[in-house]
Design goal:
Elements: H1 7-16, H2 24-53, H3 60-71
């Protein structure tokens, strides 16, 4: 597969491959992984907003108690 890229992107990829052992595929893979991570974070935030709008909320003190109990964290930590 051949992909045409604007010169500014080519330059940026080439700058990243100036380090020993770093390939163009490595640079592109990391960029796509970063985009995937951003998409997952955005989705998680949207799910939180949707839950809040639907009234699916919990008081922080209650959440804190449950979280500490579940994870074995003392109340004074």
């Amino acid at each position: 597969m051949q992909i045409e890229l604007p010169q500014d992107l080519i330059d940026r990829v080439q700058q990243r491959t100036a380090f020993p052992g770093v390939t163009k595929a490595d640079v592109i893979r990391k960029a796509l992984d970063s985009l995937d991570q951003s998409d997952q974070e955005r989705q998680a935030i949207q799910e939180g907003i949707d839950a809040w709008r639907a009234g699916d909320v919990q008081e922080f003190d209650e959440f804190d108690r449950e979280f500490r109990a579940k994870n074995g964290i003392s109340a004074d930590a």
